[in-house]
């Protein structure tokens, strides 16, 4: 599965704790992240991560583009709901695309833990089946 990892600055310690705790699951998947989040996770865990631009410079939009191209299976986005972000429209657009394309998205640690455990249990295998079926039709 292709998984996007994103965290706002005040949530970065939380995503590092999360990715460290679930490293054994995450390492089986293709990981993507916005710039600073990806660097911090890679430094802390050694996980291999494809990094986009930093969020305020377009990283959220780059991940949105992957979603629009049917190339992202899950988004874990630890949002900071208490701090205004200069790129708020990009954040809204990314979450909107998750809804448009039925991409599972968790915006906090509690939801992310449920999603990652479900992923490991095979609950997301339907995504591969659906993708294979779409590819056959095309
Ligand atoms: O701002 C972000 C998401 O909206 C995250 O960007 P960084 O990972 O570059 O800090």
From TrEMBL:
Enzyme Commission designation: 4.2.3.3
Domain MGS-like: from-to ranges: 1-138
Enzyme class: lyase
Catalytic reaction(s) noted: dihydroxyacetone phosphate = methylglyoxal + phosphate
InterPro entries named in the record: Methylgl_synth, Methylglyoxal_synth_AS, MGS-like_dom, MGS-like_dom_sf
Alphabetic keyword roster: Lyase
Residues at the catalytic site: 60
SMART domains: MGS
Residues annotated for substrate binding in this entry: 8, 12, 34-37, 54-55, 87
SUPFAM superfamilies (UniProt xref): Methylglyoxal synthase-like
Transmembrane segments: none
GO molecular function, a single term: methylglyoxal synthase activity
Pfam families attached to this UniProt entry: MGS
Job description of the protein: Catalyzes the formation of methylglyoxal from dihydroxyacetone phosphate.
Similarity section: Belongs to the methylglyoxal synthase family.
Record protein name field: Methylglyoxal synthase
